[in-house]
Write the structure tokens for this entry.
Amino acid sequence: MLNRLTYFCLIECGFTGPNPSFMGNMSGLKYLDVSYNFDLERGQLGEWIGNLRGLETLGLGGVNLSTTGGPISSRLLSLPHLRNLWLSYNLDLKVNLFSIVQHSRQLEMLDLSWSNVAGVIPPSIGNLSTLQSLHLSGNSLTGSILWTLGVQKLPELDLGSNQLNGSLPSSFGNLSSLVWLDLSNNFLSGIIPPSIEQLSSLISLSLDHNNFHGTFLLSVLANLTELTQLYLSSNNMLTVKVNGFWIPKFQLQRLGLRSCNMEGDFPIFISTQYDIEYLELSNNSLKGDIPNCLWDVTYLYNLQFLDLSMNLFDRFAPAKIGKNQQPLVFLSLAKNNLHGGIPHSIYEGQLEVLDLSNNKLSGKISESIGNFSSTL
């Protein structure tokens, strides 16, 4: 009866030992996923996987594919209808990315993240016209990303945490189908091209921890009305600037601008980001008052993480901090120029982490610090 089974999912079931060979008898399978059974060995997977000729989706993420059983790549490439392939979190996996690209042109989703894939990404990957999702993060891939210009209909592209270099070409804006773009933790350089404004479908943009330089105006992103996540942190040669009274059309949930050489007063536009949960502006040169909007539940009612450390703020404007406040659990104002006493209302919140170190604060610490409902 197993040959009538079309869908078989065993994700995170805690199985151990060899991958059972009877799966090779499930000739009617279209979907097979045994991912994240970390103690499950592939056994003779390389021998029987080729029997599943109708397989369209295969998930082997987090399965021990380093054990004996013959090369797996050639067997995978023999599956004529394979559309979706997950092989992530196989650090000892030896996979030939070039072969997969050459012989699996019908792929719609390919995930080889954190699987010890090395070398240059073959430019021919741009010929995968049906590709909808490409995840290659956490590997040792090198070279430029010019090949991406060939995947103009690709919605999801994750190349984070590799060793990619070079610059983003001005024509990068032609990738107008992108919804999710992660190029973080690489060695990319040059300017962030203004043509990025053409990526109007973007929901998440991660360019943090690279070597971008020059001046980047956040207003360039004005057309990205669907944007909810923006990370530009730790581009130490990049200066991020915000027009004084600019109000974007997007509503961010997460914003990371750590170490972006920002100057001046607190960016006013953040007070309009009502959905924001995570806000990281540390290690800049922002100065003046910390605005009331950060503590007022009528503005940022979802804020949970706030890091304004290593700036030049000098005053607690918030009389309301902690009172009628959003569910803030992490607050760091360390290494600023804050002076005076700690507002009493700060003790009325739900904080789990509070860092006010290296300021010029004075007065007594209130006994109300014992009122925190969570462990501080």
